[in-house]
Design brief:
Blueprint lengths: L22 H9 L4 H9 L6 H22 L5 E5 L1 E2 L14 E2 L1 H6 L7 E5 L6 E5 L21 E5 L9 E6 L9 E3 L4 H11 L5 H26 L6 H12 L11 E4 L20 E7 L2 E2 L2 E2 L2 E7 L3 H22 L7 H18 L7 H6 L3 H4 L40 E4 L2 E3 L2 H8 L9 H7 L4 E3 L2 E4 L6 E2 L8
Parallel strand pairs: 1-7, 5-6, 7-8
Antiparallel strand pairs: 1-4, 2-3, 4-5, 9-10, 10-13, 11-12, 14-17, 15-16, 17-18
Helix pairs in contact: 2-6, 3-5, 6-7, 8-9
């Protein structure tokens, strides 16, 4: 029978090659003044990590959690997870998007070489069915050895539909497959998916190491772009994008998300991914939101820099510096037991004071708070869960209050949770026009706001692990710009 679409996710592959293959990139970075030895170390540090042991413990933990689900849903014989899907770019074309990995599959294994199927049964060893590669159009994805193969009963099949999937089960995957003796249970979709999503909120030691490594892999790109930009080089967003990919040894497809490289006014576009080719040499800001991948887990880092010496530049730089101090305080406040939405609210209270301190309004603090002016300058959430998906799941079980509609994390912080902390302060034309039309708009310093709008906006983002001993800033461990 045909199985309905259940879930999918876009994930990408990091292509780490031998050091001699990245030698030329190292020469380029040396010419830019980037420490090649530091970069080489960040690229190869996984050889010192006991990935197989970490992954084995992770799989054993997952198996215990899934066994609990099978006891809860006693009439369920199996859970079947399809690995990936390559959708067509459109129905009138013969081009396909890169393979999109199912997040529940990546939760079990980083295997990506060929399409595969995981079959899980209560109390039994996980079964991994790997489809033989026969296409002469494309080769298989590179092998990844950073996982424990002995945790699975591995069988190679000509086609995944040859896998002996039987009984009443729950299928997860974007591509509908047919199994003769399998009956899907779509009525369980919402309840089971919610429980599986919850399993991903608290990270295992293996997952923490994946995100930590992904963070270290992204750091050389931020260092390289900071140097190029702050040296006053005449560059375009497209130039900077290419340098970031080169410095982190990635392609656009292997990066965990579309890198945001925004100069000047484009920094006011929260997800700016169009990469202007026009070179800029004058006073300007650069907002870089870019990460990397390790075993299907993402890092997500943002920095904002400004160059030049004009009056408006100095004013904007003062806001950048103040925002960084606030961001570090918010990271320190990422403590177990606290509600993440409370941190978000505290950030808005601080921004109301920013508006006064930087002479953007003559209104009182009470007036600014009551009118929610800070949401004009900080319209998105303070952060989100981070893991297999950049905006990972399991932390928005309850809806945020109406004024915090874009907040993706409303959970109580617990040990093992990894989230981003990313306050931002922007000059977004459409939101400023709305503010101008409101009564509180009469108190705003519109000439200064107009000057600062040339720099677009600011965002500073770190990846933070919650522990019982306090927050651990995974980003600042390997990045000091």
């Amino acid at each position: 029978m045909k199985l309905d679409l259940a879930i999918g996710f876009a994930s990408h592959v990091i292509y780490l090659e031998l050091l001699n293959k990245i030698y030329l990139t190292g020469i380029v970075l040396q010419l830019m003044g980037v420490d090649y030895e530091q970069r080489k170390k960040s690229m190869t540090n996984n050889q010192h990590i006991s990935w197989i042991s970490l992954h084995e413990n992770h799989v054993n933990q997952l198996k215990t959690q899934y066994d609990h689900l099978f006891r809860k849903y006693s009439d369920l014989d199996c859970i079947v997870i399809h690995s990936c899907f390559s959708p067509k770019k459109n129905s009138l074309d013969d081009q396909y998007w890169p393979s999109a990995q199912t997040p529940m599959f990546t939760h079990w294994t980083p295997y990506k070489a060929t399409p595969a199927l995981i079959v899980l049964k209560g109390g039994e060893k996980p079964e991994l069915y790997i489809e033989q590669h026969t296409s002469f159009w494309e080769g298989p994805a590179p092998e990844n050895d950073d996982w424990c193969k002995t945790c699975f009963k591995i069988t190679e099949v000509k086609s995944l539909t040859d896998a002996p999937v039987r009984g009443r089960g729950f299928y997860i995957g974007d591509e509908a497959l047919e199994f003769a003796n399998f009956k899907n249970a779509p009525e369980l979709s919402e309840s089971i998916l919610n429980e599986l999503n919850q399993l991903r909120m608290v990270k295992s030691e293996y997952e923490v190491q994946c995100i930590k490594t992904a963070t270290a892999r992204a750091a050389p790109g931020h260092v390289a772009l900071n140097k190029i930009f702050m040296d006053g080089t005449s560059v375009s967003e497209f130039d900077l994008l290419l340098e970031y990919l080169r410095a982190t040894n990635q392609t656009e497809n292997s990066a965990p998300y579309g890198n945001i490289v925004a100069l000047g006014t484009n920094a006011a576009i929260l997800h700016h991914v169009h990469y202007d080719r026009k070179k800029v040499a004058s006073d300007c800001s650069l907002l870089l939101d870019a990460g990397a991948d390790c075993n299907g887990y993402a890092s997500d880092i943002t920095r904002t820099w400004v160059r030049g010496s004009g009056r408006a530049t100095q004013k904007f730089r003062a806001i950048v510096d103040a925002l960084e101090k606030l961001q570090l305080k918010l990271v320190e406040a990422f403590e177990c037991g606290k509600m993440y939405q409370d941190l978000h609210d505290h950030c808005h209270a601080e921004f109301a004071q920013f508006i006064i301190d930087f002479e953007l309004s003559t209104a009182s603090l009470d007036e600014l708070v009551a009118s929610k002016v800070s949401r004009t300058f900080f319209p998105h959430g303070l952060g989100h869960s981070l893991g297999i998906q950049v905006h990972d799941v399991g932390t928005r079980l309850i809806a945020p209050r109406g004024e915090n509609q874009y907040l993706r994390n409303t959970s109580r912080i617990v040990p093992g949770q990894i989230a981003t902390v990313e306050p931002g302060f922007y000059f977004i034309k459409t939101l400023l026009e709305q503010l101008r039309a409101e009564k509180i708009g009469d108190s705003m310093n519109w000439p200064l706001i107009q000057e600062l709008s040339a720099f677009g906006g600011i965002r500073i983002e770190d990846n933070v692990l919650a522990t019982e001993q306090g927050p651990v800033n995974l980003t600042r461990q390997c990045l000091n710009v």
